[in-house]
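Worked Example 4.2. Consider the chain below.
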Amino acid sequence: MFQAILDIIYPVRCPICTEIVVPKGNHACPSCRERLPYVQEPKCMRCGKPIELEEKEYCSDCERKHYHYDKGFAVWQYNEVMKKSIAGFKYYSKKEYAKFYVAEIIRLHGNHLLQLSPDALVPVPIHRSKYLQRGYNQADILARGIGKELGIPVLSDLLIRNKKTLPQKKLSGVERLRNLSEAFQFNDKTAMKQKQELKKIVLVDDIYTTGSTIEACTNVLKSAGITEVYFIVICIGKGF
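Applying the procedure from the previous section yields the following structure tokens:
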């Protein structure tokens, strides 16, 4: 009854078109969902970007660079439609959009994540100044949603962002790596509180483009003794 009242006062709005979702019970309009650019095969065996040539195993980016993470998963390609949706979630307090994102992550990659048997999900952290400005970390909301559905622990403060960096979208690939240099720190206190030794981690973030952020986090984790690092994101750029 309480949920029914909430639905009347605050009806679910589609994270794609922002209109009230019809029929009720869905997290997005069925017609909107159908036009989203879901990642499909062929895709890169390392980062998960869709690629054009079926005979290729890796995208050109992963062929050129030596990433230290083990494997990544993504739901959609990052296009203008998803850019607008994630902007609402990330910058305009549309935290309710996470229900749709998490549901699709679970539907498409829930089994993959369970098969990995990770010790924890770790959201990519944001700097304290950004947290105070927004009031939340969008990656943490995603991680908690996924963790609750799959029964995987979430360690929100295993990584700390101790350096305020420039917006990544304004920088080139080389500049992004330089920008993120020493931006993240491993929280030994959080690690020591765990009942078991942490060896396998899944990073959670909203978007993967050049991979600079995931790589920077991976390097910190592996330097601290984590042996396997994977990632799951809402959207990923297109590979070649």
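The chain is about 40% helix and 15% strand. The longest helix spans residues 98-116. Compare this with Example 4.1 before moving on.
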